[in-house]
Amino acid sequence: MTDFTFDAPTVIRVKRDGGVLTDAAIDWVIDAYTRGQVADEQMSALLMAIFLRGMSAAEIARWTAAMVASGERFDFTDLRRPGSDGRPLALVDKHSTGGVGDKITIPLVPVVMACGGAVPQAAGRGLGHTGGTLDKLEAIPGFSAELSKSRIRQQLSEIGAAIFAAGELAPADRKIYALRDVTATTESLPLIASSVMSKKIAEGARALVLDTKVGSGAFLPDQDQARELARTMVELGEAHGLVTRALLTDMSVPLGRAVGNAVEVAESLEVLAGGGPSDVVDLTVALAAEMLDAAGLDAKDPAETLRDGTAMDCFRALVAAQGGDVGALDTDALPIGAHSDTVTAPRDGTMGDIDAMAVGLAVWRLGAGRSAPGEQVQFGAGLRIHRRPGEPVRAGESLFTLYTDTPARIGPARAELDGAWTVGDSAPPHRPLIIDRITRTV
Ligand code: URA
User: Residue 192 Cα, ligand 1 centroid: separation in angstroms?
Assistant: First the structure.
């Protein structure tokens, strides 16, 4: 039945003029948009008004709750892991606010599995200049993230993890997320907080760690704004019964040496084999320790699972459970762009900072992300960083290799990199990877 109490133009006008939306107006607009009764252009206008005017804490809380209520909320608390003496699963997850080269979920989930945690992870696709976990994992031939609820339950109890497309969880976020991606309304605290937390509240985890990014490659580069985002998300999680913490982590340079889809899977495999770039290893281990603590698990040292191969075993089990070709993890069978191009050093010296945003945009232009809703990404698109900040460089050496299936994409990608890196006489100042830790403020 049509509700004549509300209409989209009035709701948009209230926010456009800097007003506060009532609980009832928020419930109505989220529900009506999810059911197709508010049009994309109306929601786009409202999102832009929210982007420009912001939201109060009470509005963010209600908007998030309405997005959770737009779909199902999973409950896995009845599940027991075989051989666990009937103890419930330690259901714990992490979510990143989005970064460049941020493949951390790929090694992290198996580390937590190997330490006895159970991870129900509703993951996302690329958004703006940042990559998406699902686009990366789907680069493994056969891997599917379209899992039914019964399949997720089965994987959680049998192997301890499932990484899946949100599907019927928070369907309002699915629609709004796609709209934000193409209407320049991504970089908004209320919209990021509600997007992340609606999925995480609905997915069935009992504890959550938020990796809140700070720096040029983050949606909110400014440290004070990122801290505010982290606090807002922690409060939202706790209000919905999740033990929630956040780390503020540096995203001014890309994480690791690989940015893209399959190239990030390949780098994650190096980490799972006990090697890989130190920043990726350190962040994986720090987030795992935080997750285990939040879940009340007094388990083994997460770093040990990378050394002793148990995390790699868990990753193979996860890939196999989701239809992926485990054989492709052992060989060079992961896709790589058919065309490549190399950026070389103009002089001897030391590699300076590499701007994360520019690298994210370059990789997006190579075809790793989307510029229209539903577009197919190139699994082989990506970039390898041969010299990290502070490393010595010789004139003529390769600094970056770009990969794509579409040669015409190489010029625009190289243009994004122009001015985004330097070779100088000294190393750039050291920046801590983990900037702060944020917990509930009561
Ligand atoms: N991750 C999400 O799920 N949503 C955002 O808005 C940003 C990162």
Answer: 5
The region, left, alpha or beta by phi > 0 then psi within -120 to 50, assigned to residue 176 is alpha
Contact (Cβ atoms closer than 8 angstroms) between residue 230 and residue 210:
yes
User: Per DSSP, what are the bridge partners of residue 165?
Assistant: 123
Q: 84 lies in a domain?
A: no
Q: Which of 44, 188, 194, 195 is catalytic?
A: 195
Q: Decide if 432 is inside a domain.
A: no
368 and 270 in a common domain:
no
Q: Are residues 35 and 149 in the same domain?
A: no
Supply the residue whose CA is at minimum distance from atom 5 of ligand 1: 192
Same domain, 321 and 345: no
> Is residue 370 domain-shared with residue 399, that is, in the same domain?
yes
Is residue 346 located within the same domain as residue 398? Answer: yes
How many domains, in total, are found in the chain?
3
Please tell me the distance from the alpha carbon of residue 50 to that of residue 63, in angstroms, as a whole number.
11
Which of 68, 169, 177, 183 maximizes ligand 1 atoms within 8 Å of its Cβ, making it the mutation to test the pocket?
Answer: 177
**Residue 21, domain CATH:** 1.20.970.10
180 is catalytic: yes
Do 158 and 228 lie in one domain? The reply is yes
Does 438 fall in a domain?
Answer: no
The β-bridge partners of 400 are 343, 385
**Structural domain span for residue 166:** 92-331
Nearest CA to ligand 1 atom 1: 97
Mean pLDDT by 10 residues, the chain (442 residues): 84 98 98 97 98 98 98 95 81 97 98 97 86 95 96 96 93 93 92 97 97 97 97 98 98 98 97 97 98 91 97 98 93 90 98 98 95 87 98 98 98 97 96 96 68
Q: Give the helix/strand (H/E) hosting 340.
A: strand 339-344
Which residue CA neighbors atom 8 of ligand 1 most closely? 97
For a ligand 1 pocket test, name from 195, 199, 211 the mutation site with the most ligand atoms within 8 angstroms of its C-beta: 195
Can you tell me the distance from the alpha carbon of 204 to that of 306, in angstroms, rounded to the nearest whole number?
27
Please state whether the predicted TM-score (pTM) of the whole model is above 0.85: yes
Is residue 240 part of the annotated active site? The answer reads: no
Same domain, residue pair 108 and 226: yes
Q: Tell me whether residue 81 is in a domain.
A: no
The DSSP line for 234-287 is HHHHHHTT-EEEEEEEE-SS-SSSEEESHHHHHHHHHHHTT-S-HHHHHHHHHH
150 as an active site residue: the answer is: no
Domain end residue (candidates: 331, 366, 391): 331
Question: Is residue 197 lining ligand 1, measured as CB closer than 6 Å?
Answer: no
Helix orientation angle between 57-69 and 171-182, rounded to the nearest 10 degrees:
120
